[in-house]
Amino acid sequence: MVALWQADNYGVQADWACWTLFVFTCVTVVLRVICRTYFAHGEGRLGSLGADDYITIFCVAILLLTCILVSIGSHHGLGRHMASLDPPDIVQALKWNAIISSILIWSFSLPKFAIIAILKRILDYGRKTTIVFWALALSSQACILATSVWWFKQCTPVEYGWDRSIDGYCAPVKVMADLGYFTSAYSAFLDLFFALYPIPLIMRLNMPFKSRMAVSIALGLSGLACIVSIYKLAIFGQVFEILEQDPTYPVPYLDILGVAEGSILLICASIPTLGPLFRFARGTLTGRSGSRSMPSQSGENSQGRSGGIGNGSWGKVGGDNLEFGEGGSTGMASSVDDIPLVPPSKH
Asked: I need a labelling partner for 174 at 20 to 30 A (CA). Which of 93, 126, 293, 300 fits?
């Protein structure tokens, strides 16, 4: 891993990587909102946003704030060797480092609530499972809060953390290292838990096998966030060794990993909601293919019959009105959107 620390400026890399991840995440969530708002089962119905959607949107806002702060920090010298910075730039870089680090950890912690919320909408699990899920998530947030506060409280006065020209003292770096190890290890455990635990439950849902597999795989991919956390744990030792001598240099690399973990969780929590969009695209392509193969039919007839082609295609597309047809006689008219897109009625 020695070759890891060969770049002259990790700030530039962090800028590019974080904003790229944010764009992918934002596009996925926007498509999710569109699907939830405009695509719904049943003709003449509009969908609705639920608690899981609002939680996800809030997490995207935190991710956006993190990316903005990473760019500001890079502008002030974060990611460069401290020896290459002027004293005023060092002060600003370390100040923004504290701000970024205290916000960054929320960008990969809060999305766990998005996972819990989408699981609630899919599975509608009971009180005991709800208590377990929320206890795990809230205990994780407690660790994150402690770490976030410690970024500022580790030095007395607080300003001594970035301005060593004033009198003060700081706690040993080992304290922050221990907090970082524990928080990341716990985060990795939760990422893996929420990726694997729901799969047996999803596989028992009353929908086609392919749909169950698609939803399970989509949510299971959130386990990739666990891999990111494990990688962070693997390099933490080196990072904190470097921080003692060169505190402005390695931080943006950790920023990339934190944003990556949060983005993976948000994207994986949103993929299962995009089924109507996939089905619409498939129905449109199938309809065009059918119209080319049967040139003697009118365009209107081809469009009207496109709902019967494939498994549950879009039945009608006219102007701004999108109506979803549950057509098909095979009983397999479901797709990866066969989850409660609106709160189910209580029987």
From this structure: 93
